[in-house]
Amino acid sequence: MGENKKIGMIVFSGTEDKMIPVGVISQGAAAMGYDVLIFFTGWAMFRLLKKPMEPTWPKEFEQMVPSLMEGMKRIKAPSWLDMLKQAKEMGAKIYVCSMMSQAAGLRKEDFDSSLVDDVVGVAAFLEMVEGGQVLFI
Known about the structure:
This protein is an alpha/beta fold and 137 residues long. The protein contains 5 helices and 5 strands, in the order βαβααβαβαβ. A 5-stranded parallel sheet has the order 4-3-2-1-5. Strand 3, helix 4 and strand 4 (118-120) form a beta-alpha-beta unit. Helix 1 (16-31) runs parallel beside helix 3 (80-89).
């Protein structure tokens, strides 16, 4: 992949207002040749289950959701999930936090294998992304 260009994302929140940027940044960075490594932890990991949790929005944004969704539809923006899948097709790797998944009683088999590459600890993820930029979403 990229010439030492690496970006890591630690994704904690699973709300739609956070998942959309995860899709946009992962797709854009992968298209620009970055090595993209994403670590889903906390509530975000539940969005990668074979039966993912329903989309939610923070209460403070709920009244703006209809106009935003209409705008996304009008500009034919792909969903965050489709953007994430496109990033994966370009080489992005997706990991789930082993501690949080264990705490929730989840195993690697519970996650969508077309999305999740592995369940790893934070130390393993930080070693993978060493030298790159890390975003916390």
